[in-house]
Amino acid sequence: MSELERWVREALEESIRVKTEAVTDNLHRIIRLAETIADSLKAGNKLLIFGNGGSAADAQHLAAEFVNRFRIERPPLAAISLATDTSILTSIGNDDSFDAVFAKQVRALGRRGDVALGISTSGNSPNILTAVMAAREMGLFSAGFTGRGGRLATLADLTLSVNCDVTAHVQETHIVYGHMLCDLVDRILYPDQFISPGRQTSA
């Protein structure tokens, strides 16, 4: 086995270990968050998702899974990524502060009963923290995906953390959390509509 092959295997094993431990440690919180999101959507509310960089991509990815479909064909579910409108992001960043790019959108679009999900590998991104604080002030349920915690873990109503210092593994675990939430919300809202496990989802 070459050095590169050995490194690939070791990286895979470490990634699997981090995910397994994170899901095991957060199992009840994952279910609680899925139930909270399902209750919110069922009541006619929505899910707001936001993050920076790779976490912005995760926010967009997860919003698409809710609005379009994950594993089953069902009515579209109300989810919005706050990381995708470049005009809003750049105007707030230019006229106010980059720290306000998500908080202003939460204040504009959020309503009591919605769920706000902030994603931050460090747990200390200022624009994520200010948005979560805005959400809580407005009566939204606030949730976070983070790494070892940071301030997000103390600000949000519920946080799913990853006990790891490797950013890549934290991000990999965040998308696992997100996919589990999509699947669980579908199972809660549409328990009789599941397709066979082998069917692929949309890209």
Write the layout of secondary structure elements.
Blueprint: H1 3-25, H2 27-42, E1 47-51, H3 54-67, E2 79-81, H4 86-95, H5 103-109, E3 115-119, H6 126-138, E4 141-145, H7 152-155, E5 158-160, H8 167-189
Parallel strand pairs: 1-2, 1-3, 3-4, 4-5
Helix pairs in contact: 1-8, 2-8, 3-8, 5-6
**Average pLDDT figure:** 95
Widest beta sheet: strand line-up: 2-1-3-4-5
- At the first level of CATH, what is the class? Alpha Beta
Strand content: 5-15%
Class from helix and strand fractions:
alpha/beta
CATH superfamily name? Answer: Glucose-6-phosphate isomerase like protein, domain 1
Number of helices: 8
Keywords:
alpha/beta; 8 helices; Rossmann fold
Describe the structure.
- The chain is built from eight helices and five strands, in the order H-H-E-H-E-H-H-E-H-E-H-E-H.
- With 203 residues, it is α/β, with parallel strands linked by helices.
- The chain has one domain (14-188): Glucose-6-phosphate isomerase like protein, domain 1 (Rossmann fold).
- A five-stranded parallel beta sheet has the order 2-1-3-4-5, sandwiched between helices.
- Helix 7 (152-155) links the parallel strand 4 (141-145) and strand 5 (158-160).
- The chain starts with a helix and ends in a 14-residue tail after the last helix.
- The relative contact order is 0.19.
